[in-house]
Amino acid sequence: MKEFNVIERFFAERGQARRDVELSVGDDCALVNPAEHKSIAISCDTLVENVHFLADMPAKALGYKSVAVNLSDLAAMGAEPAWMTLAITLPNIDEAWLDAFSQGLNDAAEYYGVALVGGDTTRGPKSITITINGQVPKGKALTRSGANNGDWIYVTGTLGDSALGLAILRGEQTLSGDAAQYLIQRHYYPTPRVLAGQSLRNLASSAIDLSDGLVSDIGHILKHSNVGATVDVDQLPLSAAMRESVEYEQALSYALTGGEDYELLFTVPESQRGALETSLAHAGVSFAKIGQISTGNKLRLMKEGATFKPINFSFEHFTS
Amino acid sequence: MKEFNVIERFFAERGQARRDVELSVGDDCALVNPAEHKSIAISCDTLVENVHFLADMPAKALGYKSVAVNLSDLAAMGAEPAWMTLAITLPNIDEAWLDAFSQGLNDAAEYYGVALVGGDTTRGPKSITITINGQVPKGKALTRSGANNGDWIYVTGTLGDSALGLAILRGEQTLSGDAAQYLIQRHYYPTPRVLAGQSLRNLASSAIDLSDGLVSDIGHILKHSNVGATVDVDQLPLSAAMRESVEYEQALSYALTGGEDYELLFTVPESQRGALETSLAHAGVSFAKIGQISTGNKLRLMKEGATFKPINFSFEHFTS
């Protein structure tokens, strides 16, 4: 099978269509027609086997997650997903694997309305690079640099589930049953907060998606916005599965440093707090207020009025 | 060194800036502002060591060529280069190698006015994926599907030089001196025909860039346009270096099947022939009329009125 045909047959022909795609896979370039008065948000992520995903990860989950992690970047900017390209490197053409992978990828693409418009297939150790384009009204994108002293800090969803799911898959936690299955699914099928991101556009002062863990990622907001933050760890949202599976201190550690949550962390000025909470409730997304932006450039983790130190303090995927 | 810092330090900070880039590397996404009334052309190419480039290819040439092959896709659509992302996989962080690679990449980006706006660095066998965006006035993009019976077939530049240069590098041709150096440079530093592509917009009926060899690539135009073609091989443009280095029949074989020329092949109706030749001459690009579109779906290679059969009939990079 020729390289070209893999993209066409498994992805483009089965994938989501969009009316603004004038020409899809099959020419030297794709042609798309952006909406007027919008900026284009562009993000690019590579997932490498044994670095970003386990070799035995189900193909369908990998296809889904490859799109989801890119969508999460668009969500953090408040952008609507539009178009993407897929560069996939495979050791061999395994049609059953490609069938399942493309099903997961196309499921995510269809659900979030993103069209695959180009790609390239090459032979080598398994890796996936997706470059995604979204659209956002000019001047309305959320960035990491707008947080101000006094703004409230929020996160969507629950934290740490993906990291605990990974620990189960790696045999570092011996858990089974429904809770374990839930946590593994959270690792395999993260939910990019695309609608939540869009609903934050006129309300949040800054936003970021949680890919490396809260402690690491909030650091980017502090640095880019030149502010500090206090987080009350007792306010961190934890799933029932997390709570029933590990001790509370361990759960807090996963929530603070676990990584791969793909939830949004964002800051909101006091004046927008009511509107924000109404808007997110309408979007059907759970959220929690976990702290407040301060002056200085430090992150302070607090628990019952005292400084809190989590068990682990770094997360670099699972290479370390 | 963190993955993120490689893109920022070696590429974004040193790279070409553009006024339509609102936010570059350093947030969840880049933000760019497309021009009004234009379509966006998107292309994605992966280059893998020992598949698409030799392991001892100079880093600077590899950086340049990685951009050039993507620019060539934009050229074939008549698009102006705008923004790109770079996903680079490296076995280790070699600063000297990255210095040279980024110099070549940034040279090409600067010359053709394309801004690097995002990327990702991962560890593994060396490979480079670039996704490039260009802009083209709505409805004016060149495609593979517009060729009509009677249209003239043209190519830019000279053909086969890159393939002969590669043969020299691989020791399959024992040549030396200025001609050999010229041919090797043509392999390392192809010239994407970006301005020529734009000047073809209202004149050519179809276009494609020559990456896999003329015989293979013209086939895409015949298929998408549902036409045939006759090419007079004596009209194929050959460089002086090619002519003096190998026998004429061998030269024709390189020109027809060699691959990696990154020249444009395009078709022009008789009514636009004069305007086309004036326009390309103004753009300072050499070009040659090599044949004519016909009915049927076959490519006929002719030499002095008889069918011509080249020595080799396939080109699949250098894996085979």
From TrEMBL, chains A, B:
Mg(2+) 1 binds at D45, D120. CDD domains: ThiL. Pathway: Cofactor biosynthesis; thiamine diphosphate biosynthesis; thiamine diphosphate from thiamine phosphate: step 1/1. Mg(2+) 5 binds at D212. It comes from the Bacteria. Residues 149-301 form the PurM-like C-terminal domain. Mg(2+) 4 binds at D28, S43, D73. Keywords: ATP-binding, Kinase, Magnesium, Metal-binding, Nucleotide-binding, Thiamine biosynthesis, Transferase. It catalyses: thiamine phosphate + ATP = thiamine diphosphate + ADP. Its EC number is 2.7.4.16. One of its GO terms (molecular function) is kinase activity. Mg(2+) 2 binds at D45, D73. Mg(2+) 3 binds at D28, D73, D209. Pfam families: AIRS, AIRS_C. Residues 26-134 form the PurM-like N-terminal domain. ATP binds at G119, D120, R144, S211. Substrate binds at H52, E260, F315. Reaction mechanism of ThiL seems to utilize a direct, inline transfer of the gamma-phosphate of ATP to TMP rather than a phosphorylated enzyme intermediate. Catalyzes the ATP-dependent phosphorylation of thiamine-monophosphate (TMP) to form thiamine-pyrophosphate (TPP), the active form of vitamin B1. Belongs to the thiamine-monophosphate kinase family. This is Thiamine-monophosphate kinase. It comes from Shewanella algidipiscicola.
